[in-house]
Structures are given as C-alpha cells and as structure tokens.
Amino acid sequence: MPAARESLLDAAYTALARRPWSAVRMVDVAAAAGVSRQTLYNEFGSKDGLARALVRREADGYLAGVERALTAHADPRDRLTAAAEWTVASARGNPLVRAMLTGCWGERLPAPALPAAPSGSTVPAQRRADGPLPSPADFVALVRDRAAAVLAGPGAPRSDTAELARSCELVVRLALSCVAAPPADDGVADLIRGALHRQPVT
Question: How far apart are CA 81 and CA 84, in angstroms?
Fold first, then answer.
C-alpha cells in the first residue's frame, strides 16, 4: 500500500478515536497525514470511500492476525485457542473490528454498506475497498474455513475436514460470545480449551 494512502488511513483512524466519524473532516485527515486534500480525494474519492478503505484495512489486519495465530503453535488446540484470543483482543482494542465482528455499529463509527459500492477509482486498493465488505457471518466462515484448512493440512479431502470445520466454527462462535460478554482474565483460553476437550481437532 503506498505510503500516502497508509498515512491517510492512520490519520483517519486517529481522528476517529477522538471524535465521531460524522465530525471527522477530510481536510483535517489530509493535514494530519501531511498531504493535500486533493491527494486524499484522489486516493479515496469521497469520505464514504475513505470509510470503506479504513474498514477494509482493519478487516485485513484482523484476518492477518488470525493467520499468524493459526501458525504460531504446533498443537491444534493451541492454534485455535490463539485465534480465539486474538479475536477477543482485537475486538477489545479496535472499535472497527468489534463492529465488523458483531454487526453493532455505534453512532460514533462509520457504517459503510456491506454490498459493493459503485467505484470509478483508478486506485486498485480503492477498487477493492469499494467491493463487498465482510459481514459478521462472512468473518465466521472465513476464520472457520482458514482454521480448518490449516489444521487439516494441504491436500486433505473435503470429506475429512467436515467435522474439523464444525469444531473450528464452534471456536469462532465462542470467541465472538467473549467479544459480546468478556470473561475474566484468561477466561477465553479456559473456555476454548474446555470446549475443545472432546472435539476432533487433529
């Protein structure tokens, strides 16, 4: 991602932490990023385009973290536990991730429509951002399918992964319940390990 675009998204995220999205001004985002307002409009097209790009970036960051969690351990249960813990930590630390995972967009946040938006952008990253954004159900499916693929290994027959996918979905849904109703310290890991005790994850 070009440096100017990333700086603008950083500036928009910082502005959002200080004030509601409705009060975030494009001119202020451009100034905070050290670029012209024209550069901002060239990259994103509009404030809605900026919102979609910001949401897309945070979604990609969350999914990249899931990928890291799933490959950071040898034991399958540890992998799923790490992915669940990442999900909860990400939602606690990032209001956009929380909104994406739960579908609960507060009035302080941008709430871009999930279907694709018309895009005349010449910027490839913006055309992607203007595409459909993941819904909470999409995130469940994305994380479930990626976890099942990692745990099953390359080339595993689809029929062999059906039960594994159910276990992975259970973990994702338990993690999302912890986002909505956070457990006590270390409660996420205990909850996931307890749920996986009799589940097929190898």
Answer: 5
Tokens of 36: 């012209």
From 128, 48, 127, 59, select the one nearest 97 (Cα to Cα): 59
pLDDT, tens only, 101-156: 999 999 999 989 999 999 989 999 999 999 999 999 999 999 999 999 999 887 76
- Residues 182-198 have pLDDT tens digits of 887 768 988 898 888 76
Q: How far apart are CA 164 and CA 157, in angstroms?
A: 12
* Prediction pTM value: 0.92
Under DSSP, is residue 130 helix (H, G, I), strand (E, B) or coil?
Answer: coil
Residue type present at position 9: L
Cβ-proximal residues to 42 (8 Å cutoff; 6+ apart), any chain: 123
- Given a contact cutoff of 8 angstroms between Cβ atoms, the answer to whether 40 and 30 are in contact is yes
